[in-house]
Amino acid sequence: MELIGITLLQAEKFFIVLARVAAVVAVIPIFGHQAVPPRLRIGLAVFLSIIIFPLAPGVPENVSLTIGQFFVALFQSVCVGLAISFFVILIFAGVQFGGEIAGFEMGFSIISVIDPLSSSRMSLITQFQYIFSLLIFLVLDGHLFLIQGLVESFRTAPLLGVHFVPASANQLIRATSNIFVIG
Question: Of 117, 143, 133, 175, which is closest to residue 24 (Cα–Cα)?
Answer without folding.
Answer: 143
